What we know:
Blueprint: E1 2-8, H1 22-41, E2 46-52, H2 63-66, E3 71-74, E4 87-93, E5 111-116, E6 119-121, H3 123-133, E7 137-144, H4 148-151, E8 158-162, H5 164-168, H6 175-191, E9 206-210, E10 225-227, E11 230-233, H7 236-271, H8 275-281, H9 283-289, H10 298-317
Parallel strand pairs: 1-2, 1-4, 2-3, 4-7, 7-8
Antiparallel strand pairs: 5-6, 5-9, 9-11, 10-11
Helix pairs in contact: 1-6, 7-10
Amino acid sequence: MEKVLIIADMEGCIGIYDLKNSEYCRSMMEREVSLVIEYLLKQKECKIAVADSHNNGNTLCRLRDKYPDIEILSFFWNVKDIETYDYAVLTGFHARRGIDGILSHTLRPEIKELRIGNVICGEVSFILNWLAYYSVKTILISGNRELNSEVKGKCAYFFESKSLDDLQNQKKVDIDGKFASLCEILESAWENRRLIGLEEYNRNEITIIFSQINILPLLPSSLYRIEKDKILFLDTKMFVEELYVLCQYINAAQAWLIGCLNKIKNIIRKVYPTKEDFVTEERELVRLLKVPYQKYMIDEIKLLNKRAEEIEREYIQD
């Protein structure tokens, strides 16, 4: 029995040009993943699993009822016995941050760059490398045209789900035609799956460069090798194993920063009933609070917090 892993993201799915209408986006992602599932179900002796790798990993939860015999997981790092899979299909992927494409980004808003060795990469590159470590062949990638340059030579079949041209002419895009074309390319990829070569695993170090560097001092230095604006990982395998926990630490750091600023603002609202009083009395605090929270250094947060607590004590004493 041949085993196929479908790894799905949303931003590169057919017909999605922004994420404003969450229900529409969910339905389009479901439609694209269902197309792949339905085709594979027609093949004899084929076992399928799906790794939902968008947002919180629960975008495709409704497909669990539709396909009760197919394992649908949150995120690809939760796939058990990945080395037992023969093939992978990646669908709905987007270009990396810095590329002029639709919904381009790299993992999270706080991340500026991801590098394997000295090469700047996007999400699809480290996923492909992770699959190569476990000798899983990627037979098809579906995503934005702008992604093609990154995956060229790494996958025999690439389907262009959309491009910047489509973004300009959304009303003229033949959505049904695109799904039909995806099915045709999937059929070709499946028929030639045994002829597709296995990508060689790149053992180079992975570097994550942050645009929001104020969260780095809040991450546990005992777990990560942190250098100025970056975190370094031994290789792709280690990075994928650590990625979920790293994201939890980043979320906690963001929550701490926002929580501190909200506490300070609540104190100010209590002490100064009018904005004019606050602006007159606390000019330095006003200046500091105009800075976006993403740019605060930890020492600045501590300074703000200290002054806010002083204001609160003076208010209580009066």
